[in-house]
């Protein structure tokens, strides 16, 4: 069967998109990697795991509840690896239905086809490399929120929390609430930056109040807050034992660090949609029209994967993408539901936070020469700059010169820093450096799970080349 | 006054680079232009197989000499290196029909100079312990090997500059006026001679000179695994030629063989076809069972050019003095540097070590059938 709409990613944008489309009578399937829909902010705890629901959980539960009764086919725990169809057809042929190959929660491979595809793929965490960033004990800030939110786990007993954006304060407060200690909070933003963000934040008094509570907790626990500062090294014998911030040294068994969020564009790149480099949106993003259409017919994007605006703004974008998709598919919609002013406020606040979490060029410039940038392939800043001198002028050419981005992460971790370093070494903008070509698999895929049972005779070996 | 080059080479793949390098070393002032970056199309994304058992019989004398060039690349390429590795090659047959095909093809290739011997499955497993059971017959060629094709551009770049070649990347030639003024966004580039070395785009380039040369486009798929413990130590193929397998020193296994993806001359490589992806990895896992433990991290596409008779287009362009062409060499990466060397010899007025592949036959064929 061919679905009307497939939604890739079950975060707030994806849940809302699938709900909206299914409610309108479309045949909808939602594919999500986690065991339950929710995404990072609205992540659900594992089944049977009792936790006191926080505010985010309640928002997430509401979206989950609506999705559950929407009639959408919800497939969780599945790993999508293959993308095809749409514009990916031989020359002169009409576009095909979108086709997504995945491994189900039980490991069995399956493929879904749909006339329209809504990408709600969220983001990757940005970590700008620094000496020691690959040491055990150093984890992402977003990774820390997964531990804290979904599992009620502390990342360590004595933790340094560092990076940029509101997540810093949320993570620090949750560590304190969970009984851990926070050795220091190292905020890349100056207090001046926070002050300048204030007008946008006043649009969401609820968030301001939340932020004030977090800060009060830090104050009460006498946590040193270093503003306009950054971690210079993570050190320790085999595992982390202390964190350097300039002259200051903090003993710690965990460092939670994150410098913002980078939209996940593997799928939109694979479908050859047009992209633009917009640092204030998180980096490379698919170019969208006002109704969430990408440049590829019947391919849509919503949520942070289309430009970081935060979880609160995502559901409305998802609903809009769904309505646009249904409109383009020829469904007659009863009424275009009006998104209220709250959405605009959420977007404004999200944009202010996204600006604060945007890539900080000074931080990239400060990376020492021998620091590893690509951890899969062990490529250092010095090697990237040497390649730039030797003639590498684009990110794809940099891969060929150095193997940077050719490992299992396929540049998800290193691509942005590598691009910024290459651009700066060549004296051009990141937009000129380009982005890596999108190709399947979307995630590394175990050969054993896709091979299936086959006989040699079943392999459709093509005709041999002439001798 | 503007520089007038002795020769303009259009297309900076392995054949364009080698031709330009040897022309410059022969004393010519050379400009090498590419619409993109050096060796970033087929020459940088192919499987790097340096095998005789996938090479067309007519090309084996060339491939044997090119194999030697690859293995000694730093010596003639100013230290440039593609990590070429010599190892035995095996081409295996799992069925009687494949065994018959293998026998015939090995005989023809042996006659052309490739030292291929036929061995049974057990002997093949002694050479390649990673090989599956059930092999009925195998062709074993001690002269085989592989390179890291993605390093090709880096390897040639320094040598070209050292030889004094003017390299103009990201400079698409839009047309050729007179004899010869190249129209580019960077301005007109004038040269006494021109060499077309544009891979699958040779058809468009020939049209600039009023020559109709049909070039078929093959969209070859490749798949690479994560680094894994050693599972094989040869270059492995199957009798039909539709598999190439090798494990690099870094542990990654490259799976190829010419399974077709989606793409064309205009759009380039568009997408990997998932049914062919699956067929290709199944064939690989059938041949080396330990690959079942691998994780696939990436697939990609490369565009291979083919003439009407699937033999190369290398030589002068008929009717246009001082215009030359090079390309459409089956398994072209393997033979590439040697093809560039002999074309350079011809352009420099020397007798090429081995005969070129003049394109008159392809043009006549066309006019006869029209």
Annotation field: number of helices of chain A: 15
The CATH homologous superfamily of the largest domain in chain A corresponds to FAD/NAD(P)-binding domain
Helix/strand/pairing class of chain B, anyone?
Answer: alpha/beta
Percentage of residues assigned to helices of chain B: 25-40%
What is the oligomeric state here?
heterodimer
Interface with most residues: A-B, 51 and 66 residues
- The share of residues in extended strands of chain A comes to 15-25%
CATH topology of the largest domain in chain B: FAD/NAD(P)-binding domain
User: CATH superfamily of the largest domain in chain B, please?
Assistant: FAD/NAD(P)-binding domain
CATH architecture of the largest domain in chain A: 3-Layer(bba) Sandwich
Please provide a brief summary of the model.
With 467 residues, chain A is an alpha/beta fold. Chain A is 33% helix and 21% strand.
Secondary structure elements and their pairing?
The complex is a heterodimer of chains A (467) and B (370).
Chain A: E1 2-8, H1 12-23, E2 28-31, H2 55-68, E3 73-75, E4 79-86, E5 96-103, E6 109-119, E7 123-125, E8 138-140, H3 141-151, E9 158-163, H4 167-177, E10 181-187, H5 191-201, H6 205-220, E11 225-227, E12 233-235, E13 242-245, E14 248-251, E15 254-258, E16 261-263, H7 266-270, E17 275-278, E18 283-286, E19 299-301, H8 314-329, H9 341-356, H10 361-365, E20 372-374, E21 379-380, H11 381-390, H12 395-402, H13 415-426, H14 430-433, E22 445-446, H15 447-451
Parallel strand pairs in A: 1-2, 1-6, 2-3, 6-19, 8-15, 9-10, 9-15, 10-11
Antiparallel strand pairs in A: 4-5, 5-6, 7-16, 12-13, 13-14, 17-18, 20-21
Chain B: E1 4-10, H1 14-25, E2 30-33, H2 42-45, H3 60-71, H4 73-76, E3 85-93, H5 96-111, E4 117-119, H6 121-127, E5 137-146, H7 152-162, E6 166-168, E7 175-177, E8 181-184, E9 187-196, H8 202-208, E10 216-225, E11 235-238, E12 244-247, E13 253-256, E14 262-264, E15 268-271, H9 274-287, E16 295-306, E17 313-316, E18 323-327, H10 332-347, H11 360-369
Parallel strand pairs in B: 1-2, 1-9, 2-6, 3-11, 9-18
Antiparallel strand pairs in B: 3-5, 4-5, 7-8, 8-9, 10-13, 10-16, 11-12, 12-13, 14-15, 17-18
């Amino acid at each position: 069967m061919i679905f009307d709409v497939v939604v890739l990613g079950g975060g707030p944008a994806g849940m809302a998109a699938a709900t909206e489309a299914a409610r309108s009578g479309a045949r909808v399937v939602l594919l999500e990697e986690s065991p339950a829909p929710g995404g990072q902010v609205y992540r659900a705890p594992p089944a049977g795991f009792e936790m006191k629901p926080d505010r985010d959980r309640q928002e997430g539960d509401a979206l989950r509840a609506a999705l559950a009764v929407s009639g959408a086919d919800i497939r969780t725990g599945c790993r999508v690896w293959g993308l095809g169809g749409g514009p990916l057809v031989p020359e002169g042929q009409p576009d095909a239905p979108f086709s997504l190959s995945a491994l189900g929660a039980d490991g069995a491979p399956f493929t879904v086809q749909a006339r329209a595809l809504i990408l709600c793929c969220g983001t990757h965490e940005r970590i700008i490399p620094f000496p020691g960033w690959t040491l055990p004990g150093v984890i992402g800030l977003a990774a820390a929120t997964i531990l804290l939110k979904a599992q009620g786990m502390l990342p360590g007993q004595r933790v340094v929390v560092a990076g940029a954006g509101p997540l810093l304060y949320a993570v620090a407060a949750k560590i304190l609430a969970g009984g851990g200690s926070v050795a220091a909070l190292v905020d890349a933003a100056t207090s001046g930056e926070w002050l300048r963000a204030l007008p946008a934040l006043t649009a969401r008094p609820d968030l301001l109040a939340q932020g004030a509570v977090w800060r009060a907790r830090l104050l009460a626990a006498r946590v040193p807050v270093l503003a306009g500062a950054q971690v210079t090294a993570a050190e320790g014998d085999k595992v982390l034992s202390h964190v350097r911030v300039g002259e200051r040294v903090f003993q710690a068994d965990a460092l939670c660090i994150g410098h913002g969020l980078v939209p996940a564009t593997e799928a939109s790149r694979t479908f050859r949609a047009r992209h633009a480099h917009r640092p204030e949106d998180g980096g490379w993003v698919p170019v969208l029209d006002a109704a969430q259409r990408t440049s590829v017919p019947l391919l849509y994007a919503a949520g942070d994967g289309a430009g970081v605006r935060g979880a609160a703004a995502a559901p409305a974008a998802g609903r809009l993408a769904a309505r646009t998709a249904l409109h383009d598919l020829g469904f007659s919609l009863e009424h275009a539901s009006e998104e209220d002013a709250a959405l605009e406020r959420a977007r404004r606040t999200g944009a202010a936070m996204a600006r604060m979490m945007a890539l900080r060029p000074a931080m990239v410039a400060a990376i020492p020469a021998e620091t590893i940038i690509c951890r899969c392939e062990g490529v250092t800043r010095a090697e990237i700059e040497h390649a730039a001198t030797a003639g590498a002028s684009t990110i794809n050419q940099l891969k060929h010169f150095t193997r940077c981005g050719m490992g299992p992460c396929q540049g998800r971790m290193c691509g942005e820093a590598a691009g910024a370093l290459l651009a700066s070494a060549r004296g051009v903008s990141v937009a000129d450096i380009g982005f890596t070509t999108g190709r399947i698999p979307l995630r590394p895929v175990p050969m054993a799970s896709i091979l299936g049972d086959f006989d040699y005779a079943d392999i459709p070996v093509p005709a041999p080349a002439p001798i | 006054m503007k520089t007038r080059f002795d020769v303009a080479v259009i297309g900076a793949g392995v054949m364009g680079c080698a031709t330009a390098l040897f022309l410059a070393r022969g004393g010519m002032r050379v400009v090498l232009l590419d619409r993109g970056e050096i060796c970033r199309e087929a020459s940088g994304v192919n499987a790097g197989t340096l095998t005789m058992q996938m090479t067309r019989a007519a090309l084996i004398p060339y491939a044997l000499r090119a194999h030697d060039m690859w293995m000694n690349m730093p010596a003639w390429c100013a230290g440039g290196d593609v990590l070429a590795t010599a190892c035995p090659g095996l081409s295996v047959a799992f069925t009687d029909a494949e065994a018959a095909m293998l026998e015939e093809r090995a005989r023809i290739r042996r006659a052309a100079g490739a030292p291929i011997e036929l061995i049974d499955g057990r002997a093949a497993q002694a050479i390649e312990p990673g090989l599956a059971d059930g092999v009925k017959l195998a062709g074993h060629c001690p002269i085989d090997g592989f390179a890291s094709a993605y390093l090709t551009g880096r390897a040639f770049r320094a040598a070209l500059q050292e030889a004094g070649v003017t390299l103009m990347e990201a400079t698409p030639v839009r047309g050729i006026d007179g004899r010869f003024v190249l129209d580019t966004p960077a301005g007109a580039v004038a040269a006494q001679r021109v060499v077309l070395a544009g891979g699958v785009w040779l058809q468009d380039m020939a049209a600039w000179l009023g020559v109709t040369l049909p070039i078929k486009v093959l969209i070859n798929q490749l798949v690479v695994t994560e680094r894994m413990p050693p599972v094989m130590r040869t270059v492995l193929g199957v009798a039909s030629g539709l598999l190439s397998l090798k494990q690099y020193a870094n542990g990654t296994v490259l799976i190829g063989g010419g399974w077709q993806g989606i793409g064309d001359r205009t759009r380039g490589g568009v997408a990997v076809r998932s049914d062919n992806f699956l067929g290709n990895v199944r064939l690989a896992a059938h041949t080396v069972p330990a690959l079942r433990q691998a994780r696939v991290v990436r697939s990609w596409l490369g565009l291979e050019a083919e003439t009407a008779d699937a033999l190369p287009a290398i030589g002068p362009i008929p009717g246009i003095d001082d215009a030359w062409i090079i390309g459409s060499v089956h398994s072209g990466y393997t033979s590439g540097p040697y093809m560039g060397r002999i074309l350079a010899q011809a352009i420099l007025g020397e007798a090429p070590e081995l005969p070129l592949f003049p394109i008159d036959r392809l043009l006549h064929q066309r006019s006869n059938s029209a």
